[in-house]
What we know:
Two copies of one chain form a homodimer. By secondary structure, the first copy, chain A, is an alpha+beta fold. Chain A has a domain of about 100 residues: Jelly Rolls. The longest helix of chain A has 27 residues. The radius of gyration of chain A is 18 Å and the shape is elongated. Chains A and B meet through helix 3 and helix 5 of A and helix 3 and helix 5 of B. Chain A binds a DNA duplex (30 and 30 nucleotides) through helix 9.
Amino acid sequence: MYSILKHAFNSISPITEDDWLLIEPLLKIKEYPKNDYYLTAGQTEEQIGFIIKGSFKWYYINKKGEEVNFHFFFNNNFVVDYNSFISSVPSSMNIQAMENSTVIHLPKRSKILELYSQSHTLERFGRIIAETVYIEGSLRMQNFLFLNAEERYRNLLKKHPDIFQRVSLANISSYLGIQAPSLSRIRKRISKQ
Amino acid sequence: MYSILKHAFNSISPITEDDWLLIEPLLKIKEYPKNDYYLTAGQTEEQIGFIIKGSFKWYYINKKGEEVNFHFFFNNNFVVDYNSFISSVPSSMNIQAMENSTVIHLPKRSKILELYSQSHTLERFGRIIAETVYIEGSLRMQNFLFLNAEERYRNLLKKHPDIFQRVSLANISSYLGIQAPSLSRIRKRISKQ
DNA sequence: ACCTTTTCTTAACTTAGGTTAAGTGTTTCT
DNA sequence: AGAAACACTTAACCTAAGTTAAGAAAAGGT
């Protein structure tokens, strides 16, 4: 059951057998029925999760009370408010299951820092994760800065066509930073070409 | 001369004397006259710099040939295309001096990775830097996602009023993700309140 | 199969911000 | 000081996207 996580680790950066043995006994599995919260605003993220089944949305509630999606998390990926996790500051966002989901919980931050101290290679692993997550965030930022709504839509369609099978257009429009009617307009415009 | 860098390091995360002695002999100082490039599109970022005097802009040239500022770097801060630096991929952006500037160059990526291997505490230091940089990027992203142009302007005015003394409004408008006339409109609107 | 609820699209109108170009200050250079 | 270059503002017009509300389509529940 945990081998899928080990495999995911290895695809980011090879993990030593010793390091894996430090981590494995601390893992736990948890189910999140659809619409359950992984994290709610005000909580401090203590743990990193790895999704083995399902998907989550990471969103913010704006001044008008609307959900603004910041990110989606899918199976075979980590789910975490990395910001809150790193800085141990309460999150201003929510993470909610969009489907019935299953998550492997890694040890909490304080325990992970302990493990880092015990193992130089694990500390390196932590560095590489942080760098990887930075690059992902940075690419998403560039996506927003340099592309307009239609380009962002085309980009998403090209890179994650599967998302459209699993996530409602209302959620996708919010993820693209636009309103639902705007997304409809864009889709109509494109379908006519 | 290098003590200012040591101090900057310590304010991010305490650095051991041994680690500092590994780094110090590898430092170099370089001058960048106003408008000189620290990095141009197509180059791969090899080094991290620490600005002891001056400022830089990090920008992208869009399809219409206009500069779009992504970030400003000021004295007492690092200057780096962290994305290109981490992934050793050519940068798609430029970093250019906005004032006559002086920079301490840290060793290049390959050398830094060597140092990480030699010292667990230095590896930890690298992890903390990556995490810190991630949080900065993430805050800037949220700034864009959740605030409109006027709110971003007010935010900048509140958090970095000094920028307005050192950077032209053309550069600032680009940093805020808007055109110069829009920034003028916003400034006029606010001044009437 | 039927009703309810949710999801998606469409239309009409509004608004923030983009575009272009002209105009007014400021620096800077000789 | 005068010319040139640059920085900033303003105005008039345009466009992409927001807003609101109504309708069509699809999905779910009984």
